[in-house]
Amino acid sequence: MLNLIWLGLLLVSAVTALLTGNLKQLVNSVPDAAMNAFKLSLGLTGIMALWLGIMRIAEKSGLTEKLSAMIAPLMVRIFPGVPRDHPAIAAMAANMIANMFGLNNAATPLGIKAMKDLETLNQVKGSATHAMCMFLALNTSSLQLVPFGAIALLAAGGSKDPTSIIFPAMIATSFSTISAFCVARIMSKMKRYLD
Amino acid sequence: MSTNELASTISNLILLIFLVGIPVYGALKGVKVYETFVEGAKQGFDIAVNIIPYLVAILVAVGMFRASGAMDILTSLIPSSLRNYGVTSDILALALTRPMSGAASLGILGEIVSTHGADSFQAKLGSVILGSTETTLYVVAVYFGAIGITKTKYAIHAGLVADTVGVIASMVVCRIIFG
Question: How large is the C-alpha radius of gyration of chain B?
Answer without folding.
Answer: 19
